[in-house]
Automatic annotation (TrEMBL):
Protein name as catalogued: Uncharacterized protein
Species this chain originates from: Gemmata obscuriglobus
Annotated region (Disordered), positions in chain: 17-39, 78-114
Biased composition annotated in UniProt, kind: Basic and acidic residues: 78-88
Top-level taxonomic group: Bacteria
Length: 114
């Protein structure tokens, strides 16, 4: 397992979720209105990483959904880093073995007899 540190903005989102008494909505977790956070994809990315989970709602409307921390998210909110499994490239399959076709004997046409 490798360790990944999180950005200050994402750390603030996780801390706000941890301090909240009830699951906050995605709109409440948009701490700073920046162009990167205007579509809510940062919330979906946190769910995909396993740091947050949906309590209500779905990825289709992340600002109306409510979120809570996972165990990994609790650790990241406290220490600013979490363990993740690095993606390894899939092994390349061996190239296909091309079998050459056996040589075919050409039929020799005999000359026409008169």
């Amino acid at each position: 397992m490798a360790i990944r540190s999180i950005s200050h903005f994402l750390w603030q989102v996780l801390r706000a979720t941890k301090r909240s008494k009830k699951p906050p909505t995605g709109r409440q977790l948009r701490i700073s209105p920046t162009p990167r956070s205007k579509d809510g994809s940062f919330l979906t990315a946190l769910v995909d990483e396993g740091l947050l989970k949906f309590v209500t709602g779905s990825p289709a409307a992340p600002f109306e959904a409510t979120f809570s921390l996972t165990e990994k998210g609790e650790h990241a909110a406290e220490y600013g880093e979490y363990e993740y499994e690095p993606k390894r490239p899939a092994p390349q399959p061996p190239p296909p073995v091309v079998k050459s076709a056996p040589p075919t004997a050409k039929k020799v046409r005999s000359a026409k007899k008169p």
